[in-house]
Input
Amino acid sequence: MNTAQPECLVCAFNEINHTTALLIRKSQQLASMQNLPLRLLWAINDKMFSFEHLDLPELKAEERVQREFSLFTEKHGFSDISNCDIRFGKPFVEIIRYQNAVNAKLVVKQMEEKSWMSNSIASDDFKLLRKCPAPVLLTRSDSDEFPKNILVAVDFDRDDSSSNDDELNKKMLDTVVHFFDKPETHCTVLNAYSAPQSGFVSLFADYPDKLVDDMLASEKRFKGGELNMLSRYFVEHLKPQYLQNNFKKLLLQGYAEQLIPQQVEKTEADLLVIGSVARAGIQDFIMGSTAEEVLSNVKCDVLTLKPDGFVSPVLATD
Output
């Protein structure tokens, strides 16, 4: 991250249309509320973009794109926007490089629609989700309104002493308060607990049903205690002006990738906040993390965050 630059908010898109106009307006609201400068990035796939529809043969590629963007801003009434930054290449790579260069506090991007191949080949959004160090707000809504119902999915791991789940959970709540603490907003913090190892262990137990019940009860006590401490941190440390009166916690038995989409629908959430941990190598191609499975099965905006100290493989190779 280029800390020499003042923090900003980045609005990134791959093409310009009516939905892009809504995306920019939503980004303008977020940036204005936090008094952050707004930077626009048009990340163009250089293998797919064509200039055949532009009757400007004398101009170079970037100048042509800037001209098209100017026509777009005039059409949609963006009188306060004169231009945007243009990058050609793989969109997710260019977005990550750009957010690092301009010190983005948040990247806002329109979510790509799921394709029939998305379960086996990661889309640009999945790659951005895995590899962008800055928080990413992926929006699939057709509105520029602020979210009114926020679901924050947190995780606790007592089996891994090196896990930084606690700090990531706090970071997610801090980001919610920072950007979305408004009178009409409601926030639910969800944790799903299970005992996946119980099936194997119970094979060798004299009373397998009791063993499973005991393991689930132990997980529930641990996760419930952690959730209570996180809730106190939210109210006492972050001190939200409005959300502390519109806040509830939810502890449910089951698997996160199943429960989170169910609760998004049940609570009518229009924003899901979730932590994302990147992987590399062959798993990056054939396996989906919980965050990616959830992203494929919810119909609301999604805000994803990385743990502090995460180094993007994209930037590591630059």
